[in-house]
Write a structure and sequence with these properties.
alpha/beta, 15 strands, L-arginine/glycine Amidinotransferase, Chain A, about 325 residues, three-stranded mixed beta sheet, disordered N terminus
Amino acid sequence: MTRGDNVRNSGPEQQCASSVLMIRPTTFYSNPESLSTNAFQRAVQAPRVDTLAAALAEFDAAASALADAGIDVIVAEADATADAPDALFPNNWFSTHADGRIALYPMSVPNRRQERRPALLQSIAAQRELAIHSIVDLSVLEHQSLFVEGTGSLILDRPHRLAYACRSPRTQDAAVEAFCEAFGYRSVIFDAHDEAGRPIYHTNVIMSVGSALAVLASGLIAPGAGLRRVFDALEASGKTLLDLSAEQVNEFAGNILFLEGSAGPVVAISRRALASLSRAQRLLLEQHARPVVCGVETIELLGGGGIRCMLAELFLPYA
């Protein structure tokens, strides 16, 4: 990639990244510390060598599919000294921004805090001649038991400076507002629950925002002021809405990521998520982005997160 190929060179922050970081796991199993707050996760009992092998096969295939679609995929190995079963979900511990800042986030699950590796980001930036001007360390909020888990908790509309967030034990108002104050965003906070009445643990399982299309399971959002705020913000920012059902959310249809490929917009989406869409929904999605389909069923089942959670967008400017 040459410097002229990337929209990070100048101008306002773009919505869709053309470069992502993926963390290749050194261990993978159903994290017992996250089960109580992640209704998408299953406690499957299986040898860890087998679950890791399955996750690695899915990870490598997904990375290849994204690279083939013209996404600059940077793969780094997880810290082999840490027993971090969710390390392949890096979007929860950091986000990057076009002004050269990085946010580090407070994590509610104790064993996930060891995933934070700012030195890794510094190394990647140096290798790629990217600028990190400062690191905003929100992880100190953990001392107050306040959490906002990166772009799992926050769905960022970067050009419009909107941060959508659904409340949960992993996403709390004060932590959301701390991010918004530091980075100049306006919060759009709401409550959302699954069909059993449990809080949606991460906003990115029910919502994704692209340049012109927003995917949302509006039926899971509590009626009232919060839902009105979401609709008003989407309308004011000019987004077309693709509305999902609860059943489609269970198939990870909300856990998708819009990206900018070398030949135009693409959307990273899992195989089961795409299969859950109706013909009309799929056509609407394809009007805005070409699907890059990733089979990550083991990761979805044991990790309770999907392809979007595996991708940390890189928006840093060139040095």
